[in-house]
């Protein structure tokens, strides 16, 4: 029997990409995840890990065959957007790419963010010259995007009481407010009763993020920011509290309260070596048994 959802980590670092012998096992690419559901593929975030996957997509397609992908961005900080202009399908005329992401208080739409970023002097080719058929859509708190079993195009908004076809795949959204300066969006992908929750760049509240706990309730997999240790979060001279990221303990607390099956620690600090992350994994398992550190190239079938 085929898997309902397949998860692949393309990049698991935060802040900036890293390389070197101390990062070989875990990898050094920034945030990007591929979720496949049958013939459909959803990409979460467009960090540097997206670049190699884009080339793989192009290499696996025969010349002229249509390429269709959907990308959901959690927010527009550089480490989550850096791979987008290098995503090879965007440079192919046979590709249709739909990208969702949040706006910020300083711009009118998500499209404006992307068009400003992929434009000289920051990038040599302006976004409007990319040959792919690209649609940019602003996502909002509580939005639902879903596909029915016999439709190629996604539907936005709540499903009708009697949809024409059975729903094949759903993407639910939740806005988080604890990441400076404009918040972050969490996503839940659901198919055939299986679910993956993606909650990067989030900082725990004192009594836990009740909205996120409810959002992740019963998920098969929770991917949660765990950039800091407890000591880094609270200890002077430079505590990281307020930076918009979580500790390993905070991630485990959400996993336990939400009664999820597995916790994947994510958005690793660029300074973390493979040995550091092995230690962090053991610490996470002491808080929540079914904890693993996400690593570049790791795959998981639900």
Provide structural commentary.
18% of the residues lie in helices and 27% in strands. It has an 8-stranded mixed beta sheet. A 7-stranded mixed beta sheet has the order 6-5-4-3-2-1-15, with helices on one face. Helix 5 packs parallel to helix 6. The chain is an alpha/beta fold and 302 residues long. It has one domain: Ribonuclease Z/Hydroxyacylglutathione hydrolase-like (Metallo-beta-lactamase, Chain A, 4-Layer Sandwich). The protein has 6 helices and 15 strands.
The biggest beta sheet is recorded as: 8 strands, mixed
- Examine the secondary-structure arrangement and name the CATH architecture: 4-Layer Sandwich
Number of helices: 6
What do the pLDDT scores average to? Answer: 92
Describe the strand arrangement of the main beta sheet, using strand numbers: 8-7-9-10-11-12-13-14
Derived structural class: alpha/beta
- Taken together, the total number of domains comes to 1
Strand content of the residues, in percent? 25-35%
> What is the CATH topology descriptor?
Metallo-beta-lactamase, Chain A
Q: Roughly how much helix do the residues carry, as a percent range?
A: 10-25%
Order of helices and strands: EEEHEEHEEEEEEHEHHEHEE
């Amino acid at each position: 029997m085929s898997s309902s959802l397949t998860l692949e980590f393309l990049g698991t670092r935060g802040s900036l990409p890293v390389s070197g012998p101390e990062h070989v096992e875990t990898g050094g690419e920034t945030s990007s995840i591929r979720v496949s559901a049958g013939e459909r593929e959803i990409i979460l975030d467009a960090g540097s890990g997206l670049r190699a996957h884009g080339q793989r997509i192009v290499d696996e397609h025969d010349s002229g065959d249509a390429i269709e992908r959907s990308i959901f961005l959690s927010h527009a900080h550089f480490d989550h957007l850096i791979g987008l202009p290098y995503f090879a399908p965007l440079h192919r005329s046979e590709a249709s790419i739909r990208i969702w992401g949040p706006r910020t208080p300083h711009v009118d739409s998500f499209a404006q963010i992307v068009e400003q970023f992929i434009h000289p002097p920051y990038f040599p080719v302006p976004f409007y010259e990319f040959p792919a058929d690209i649609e940019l859509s602003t996502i909002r708190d509580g939005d639902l995007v879903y596909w029915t079993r016999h439709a190629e195009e996604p539907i936005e908004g709540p499903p009708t009481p009697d949809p024409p076809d059975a729903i094949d795949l759903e993407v639910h959204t939740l806005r988080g407010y604890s990441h400076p300066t404009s918040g972050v969006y969490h996503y839940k992908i659901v198919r055939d009763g299986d679910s993956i929750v993606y909650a990067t760049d989030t900082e725990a509240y004192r009594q836990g993020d009740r909205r996120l706990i409810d959002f992740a309730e019963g998920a098969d997999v929770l991917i949660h920011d765990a950039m800091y240790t407890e000591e880094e979060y609270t200890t002077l001279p430079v505590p990281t509290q307020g930076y918009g990221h979580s500790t390993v303990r905070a991630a485990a607390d959400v996993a336990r309260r939400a009664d999820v099956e597995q916790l994947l620690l994510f958005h690793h600090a660029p300074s973390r070596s493979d040995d550091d992350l092995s230690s962090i994994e053991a610490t996470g398992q002491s808080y929540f048994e079914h904890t693993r550190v996400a690593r570049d190239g790791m795959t998981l079938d639900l």
